[in-house]
From TrEMBL:
Its EC number is 4.1.1.48. This is Indole-3-glycerol phosphate synthase. One of its GO terms (molecular function) is indole-3-glycerol-phosphate synthase activity. HAMAP family: IGPS_A (MF_00134_A). CDD domains: IGPS. GO terms for biological process: L-tryptophan biosynthetic process.
Length: 268
């Protein structure tokens, strides 16, 4: 790992420092993964926008926390049309856990992404999932080895980038699933034009996912027009109608449907 930590926002640097100290698994896992490309194709055939809805109890960029059972939230997202789910497993800053991912994956039949900050190969062995997130900025020169190690275990690696240079590294590493994070981890600022600038550089055959800052159905349409095959949406689904003192917010199923039906609504 060769991240230039001085270029990261303090909250992100704290997350990365914690990730470096987190242990990996004791035994190598072997995963029979559910296909994300098949899930996206099924959504498209059903007239739904392919959305990866994120089970995110809290984060450094949001206020409050959702305290419902994560399995209930996940099932509501699938009922709302989510093609896949993302489950936070980072414990210190996002309130996630490996157990939550296990429980969610057992309860649903869609692909589940492990959303965490993995920096070493042994950390892949902590839990089974269908996809794992590899952040190009965090793993640096180890990216190609981690992509290969993930595939060897049966995972589908989703490589996250924010710049053209990171995109080039992801493509050189053989990434077939690429997520463009609209959030700058140096400043935590979000700009949807980040995706629009990078998407034209992505070759055909790569599944391209827009991440962060997608807050409205209009944002969905904007990202789809720019070339997004799918979208990863977290806070806008979890907190679309706010979170009260009991840790509950809007109807997660209805919130999800706002985004999975966005293109249909535009046409009406």
């Amino acid at each position: 790992m060769n991240t230039r930590s001085e270029e990261l926002a303090p909250a992100v640097r704290s997350i990365l420092d914690a990730a470096a100290d987190r242990p990996g698994g004791d035994e190598r896992v072997a995963v029979d993964a559910r296909s994300l490309s098949t899930a996206f194709a099924t959504a498209e055939a059903d007239g739904r926008v392919p959305v990866i809805a994120e089970v995110k109890p809290t984060s450094p960029t949001t206020d409050g926390a959702r305290r419902e059972d994560p399995v209930d939230l996940a099932e509501s997202m699938v009922a709302g049309g989510a093609a896949a789910l993302s489950v936070l497993t980072e414990p210190e800053h996002f309130g996630g856990s490996l157990d939550t991912l296990d429980r969610v994956r057992a309860a649903v039949d869609v692909p589940v992404l492990r959303k965490d900050f993995l920096v070493r190969e042994d950390q892949l062995d902590a839990v089974e999932a269908d996809l794992v997130l590899l952040i190009a900025r965090f793993v640096g020169d180890d990216l190609a080895d981690l992509v290969a190690a993930a595939r060897d275990r049966g995972f589908q690696p989703l490589v996250e980038v924010h710049t053209r240079e990171e995109l080039a590294a992801a493509l050189a590493a053989g990434a077939e699933l690429i997520g463009v994070n609209n959030r700058d981890l140096g400043k935590l600022a979000v700009d949807l034009s980040t995706f629009e600038a990078i998407a034209p550089e992505v070759p055909d055959g790569v599944t391209l996912i827009a991440e962060s800052g997608i807050a409205t159905p209009a944002d969905v349409q904007r990202m789809r027009d720019a070339g997004a095959d799918g979208l990863l949406i977290g806070s806008a689904i979890m907190d679309a109608e706010g979170t009260d003192e009991a840790g509950t917010g809007g109807d997660v199923s209805a919130n999800t449907r706002r985004f999975t039906a966005a293109e249909t609504e535009e046409e009406v």
